[in-house]
Specification:
Elements (H helix, E strand, L loop, with lengths): L5 E11 L2 E10 L2 E6 L9 E4 L4 E4 L1 E6 L12 H10 L2 E6 L10 H14 L3 E4 L15 H4 L16 H13 L4 E3 L12 E2 L2 H6 L3 E2 L2 H17 L3 E3 L5 H12 L4 E5 L1 H5 L20 H13 L4 E2 L14 H4 L10 H10 L6 H16 L13 E11 L18 E11 L2 E5 L2
Parallel strand pairs: 1-4, 1-5, 6-7, 7-8, 9-12, 10-11, 12-13, 13-14
Antiparallel strand pairs: 1-2, 2-3, 5-15, 15-16, 16-17
Length: 425
């Protein structure tokens, strides 16, 4: 299909002007040219009849591990962006725990070159806060500010207060955000699942909640000093929710995310398998409830998957020995739709805020369905019920805690810049 084609989406229920309404969408040369109750089929070279299926703006995930360069046996930019499109995503931010770590312009450029060659959706790379993510020396933040989405040492907390303070000052100067994985190393004590009942009963070493919220607390004080824009990755504890809630009331420039697995599962769902191991870990039922409350009252701004693929071997060594991280970008929408929208905990409109609108506002990326905008959109059949089977994933990583779960909502097509990034055959 040539780029100059006129494409017409007919009879779909479209998220348009903040509501769901039956519309036709005409796309001309990758741009949305018209949105109307009826558009004549002869206007188009190509017609998709999505009778009563739902058209959403392409989702945005601000926390994805694409693993390339350096670890392409786990995932590549090609497979990771295909998997993202399969999940309905058209914009993702790629995390910096790569080889080389994007801590300088040449290192970041290596990743950008692969993105330009292989990505089927929009990819916005993070630059690391510190050299090699080692926490000992600041990366070339000023140099990379123009070509990265934000600064993060994801996977590691920045331990030095002074290092984080200086990073925030530079980020503020360049109008960039600090996106923080919050973890106090001194409190980890070799833990690898939540320090709770399951760890106790099964003889596992636990990760205490304080290791997360203590660093959030510290960072908020530094944000108050610097005025830097600050975003907290994958929060998992009730204390984190409360601290961020209070910081927002105090007018701190702070946003945060959590992942579907923290909202749907807790440590009582753990099994002795690597597919239940991620960092932060699945916490207590009371933490899960606090996160849900945070979604309901707006303390938590967005859902991010922390899609973290590993090889089958790396995930086959049980809770203690497996690598940290699970895949999630292909299941995020259906899991959230099934557990939160179908159960009427939140509306479908609110899910759009969590998966798209709020991330777009905060990170200044992403899409909306409007005339004149690029056609970044995804189409779902919400009545399609199926069981999560990792063999169906396009990601190289297959390790998910949702394996075997019955969910609703199947992606039929994802379009990025008017080109089909993924389509159900």
């Amino acid at each position: 299909m040539g780029d100059e084609m006129k494409q017409l989406i007919k009879n779909a229920i479209v998220f348009y002007n903040s509501q769901f309404i039956k519309k036709d969408i005409l796309i001309d040369d990758g741009i949305i040219a018209d949105i109307s109750d009826f558009i004549a089929p002869e206007c188009a070279d190509f017609i998709y009849n999505f009778d009563n299926n739902y058209v959403f703006p392409g989702f945005t995930d601000v926390h994805v591990h694409l693993r390339e360069p350096g670890f392409s046996y786990k995932e590549t930019i090609k497979t990771g962006t295909l998997a993202s499109a399969h999940g309905g995503y058209t914009s993702v931010c790629s995390m910096p725990n790569l080889k080389p770590v994007p801590d300088s312009i040449p290192h970041l450029q290596e990743q950008i070159d692969i993105i330009n060659k292989d990505a089927v959706i929009n990819v916005y790379p993070y630059a690391s806060i510190t050299v090699n993510e080692m926490g000992e020396e600041l990366s070339d933040l000023s140099g990379m500010a123009q070509i990265c989405i934000a600064f993060s040492d994801d996977g590691r907390g920045v331990q030095s207060d002074e290092m984080m303070l200086n990073a925030m000052k530079i980020a503020k100067k360049h109008n960039k955000m600090i996106v923080a994985h919050c973890e106090v190393n001194d409190l980890l004590n070799g833990g690898y699942i939540h320090k709770g009942k399951y760890a106790e009963e099964h003889g596992h070493r636990g990760i205490c909640s304080e290791s997360e919220w203590k660093q959030i607390e510290r960072d908020i004080e530094l944000v108050k000093k610097t005025g830097c824009a600050y975003h907290v990755c994958h929060i998992s504890t009730k204390e984190s929710v409360e601290i961020i809630r209070q910081a927002k009331k105090d007018g701190v420039d702070i946003t945060c995310e959590t992942g579907p697995h923290y909202l749907v599962l807790s440590d009582k769902d753990l099994q002795e398998h690597g597919r239940f191991k991620m960092n932060p870990p699945l916490r207590d039922e009371s933490d899960k409830q606090a996160l849900i409350d945070g979604i309901l009252d707006g303390t938590i701004d967005m859902i991010a998957t922390d899609h973290a693929p590993h090889s089958a071997e790396e995930k086959s060594k049980g809770l203690e020995k497996s690598n940290m991280g699970v895949v999630g970008i292909e299941t995020a929408f259906p899991v959230m739709y099934t557990h939160f929208v179908k159960t009427e905990i939140i509306t479908l409109e609110r899910l759009m805020e969590l998966l798209s609108i709020n991330a777009n506002k905060r990170f200044n990326i992403g899409s909306s369905i409007e005339i004149g905008k690029k056609a970044d959109l995804t189409v779902f059949d919400l009545d399609n019920k199926y069981t999560v089977n990792p063999d169906d994933f396009l990601s190289i990583g297959k390790s998910t805690p949702f394996e075997g779960m019955e969910i609703y909502g199947k992606c039929l097509m994802t379009m990025c810049n008017g080109k089909i990034a993924w389509e159900a055959k």
